[in-house]
Design a protein that fits this description.
alpha/beta; six-stranded mixed β-sheet; 9 helices; 307 residues; five-stranded mixed β-sheet
């Protein structure tokens, strides 16, 4: 008989590409995970993984079986949550992924307030600049920047008008002056970000429908969006960031908007999940709360940019 725990370890090992990583998640030994996979393979009479001392990959049979195993686990989880439904509040587990900077500095206070209203709801938060795969990773929903044309996803818009802005701290501007136009960015220390091995050192800005690509450089490059934000607040340079990521810093006076007559790249924020069946009451209520908060920040930007 197939054990559901073995199925879960198979799905996590496939997602993480390692028995050791799957074992670490559930506080088991790698040998225990290996034994569970072997037990599952005996029950199915197939080989799920091709193993070597340095790599672990799914066989063709394992790839074929994986969506069925994941579907079984999802069905069990939905059944368990349906039994826990309580008219007095939200129950069950909600697993959320988000970019690190957005998650820690913007979403976390909103999620905390949401959790205080629903203390019986268990949350698991995954904040990282690595993009979560909502089909493979252990998440129900993910907050993501960008435009999604993939019909396999459900993407609920949260901040469709969000975009990047130029910001610097008052201290930096006192020491180095405020750029009067885009050409002056060349003489400033610009804080650039690395994503998937690419340095974003050409910033796109728009004015009256015209696009300008501005080459920039600086003394610090980082692959952590939070590091770029902190360096900007510390007065180390000019940053080109999502408005949502820096809105509270601007409103508190820690950062100032630069060249507000220019608008940066569009960076809409959405709540993404793989299936409509995962739009549970908890997800719907969290979505409504975050959407309202994002709208307030967007209105704050319009007020700042107009002054």
């Amino acid at each position: 008989m197939i054990r559901f725990d073995d199925l879960a370890l198979f799905v996590r090992s496939a997602a993480l590409g390692s028995f050791s990583n799957a074992a670490r998640e559930v506080d088991l030994l790698p040998a225990q995970v290996s034994a569970a996979i072997k037990r599952l393979e005996r029950e199915l009479d197939i080989r799920l993984f091709a193993r070597s001392t340095r790599s672990l990959r799914l066989t063709s049979e394992g790839e074929q079986y994986l969506p069925y195993a994941a579907g079984v686990l999802q069905t069990l989880r939905e059944g368990q949550e349906s039994l826990r439904q309580d008219p007095a509040g939200l129950y069950g587990m909600l697993q959320i992924a988000a970019p690190s900077d957005l998650g820690r500095n913007v979403l976390l206070p909103w999620i905390n307030a949401f959790h205080r209203d629903h203390p019986r709801l268990n949350l698991r938060l995954y904040f990282s600049d690595q993009i979560a795969d909502v089909f493979k990773d252990p998440v129900d929903v993910a907050f993501r920047y960008g435009i999604f044309d993939d019909a396999s996803y459900i993407a609920l818009p949260l901040a469709p008008d969000n975009h990047r802005v130029l910001v610097a701290s008052p201290d930096y501007l006192r020491r180095h002056g405020r750029p009067g136009d885009l050409a002056e960015l060349a003489r400033h220390n610009c804080l650039t970000f690395v994503l998937r091995g690419r340095v974003y050192d050409k910033w796109l800005l728009f004015r009256k429908g015209e696009k300008q690509e501005v080459p920039v450089s600086g003394t610090v490059i980082s692959d952590d969006a939070e590091v770029i934000r902190r360096l900007a607040i510390a007065g180390e340079g000019i940053a080109y960031k999502s408005w949502l990521d820096v809105a509270q810093d601007v409103l508190k006076g820690n950062l100032e908007l630069l060249l507000p007559e220019y608008q940066g790249e569009s960076l809409p924020l959405s709540l993404v999940c793989p299936h409509r069946r995962q739009l549970s009451p908890a997800v719907q209520q969290l979505y409504d709360r975050v959407k309202t908060a994002c709208l307030e920040l967007q209105q704050a930007y319009l007020c700042r940019a107009a002054t």
